[in-house]
Amino acid sequence: MGKDSINGLKMIRYSAMMVAWVGDKDLACEQLAIVVHFWDDLSHGSLKLLTLWDPLPSDPRSEQIVASLALKL
Predict the structure, then answer these.
(1) Among 10, 34, 36, 41, which is most buried by a count of CB atoms within 10 Å?
(2) Residue partners of 38: CB distance under 8 A and separation at least 6
């Protein structure tokens, strides 16, 4: 990720999505945590509403990641 930080984050994000689809929620949450720690265009709404992320909402770790992206009012 050091040489191409923007595309590297996109690759990690899509990898997280794919491993979630095949059922590896542990790896998906680890990768998702990396992506949201750095800048990325993922938002609270996109993780909650897009069907691409449907395998993850039932996992408590993903709920914590999604909650961290919520707007603080």
Answers:
(1) 36
(2) 5, 9
Question: What phi and psi, each to the nearest 5 degrees, are found at residue 53?
Answer: -100, 15
Q: Could you tell me which residue, 2 or 53, shows the higher pLDDT?
A: 53
CA distance 62 to 22: 16
Residue ranges covered by each domain of the chain: 5-69
pLDDT at residue 11 is higher than 80: yes
Q: What tokens were used for 58?
A: 């039932």
> Is residue 18 within 8 Å of 52, Cβ to Cβ?
no
Residue whose pair of structure tokens reads 């265009």 in the numeric block: 41
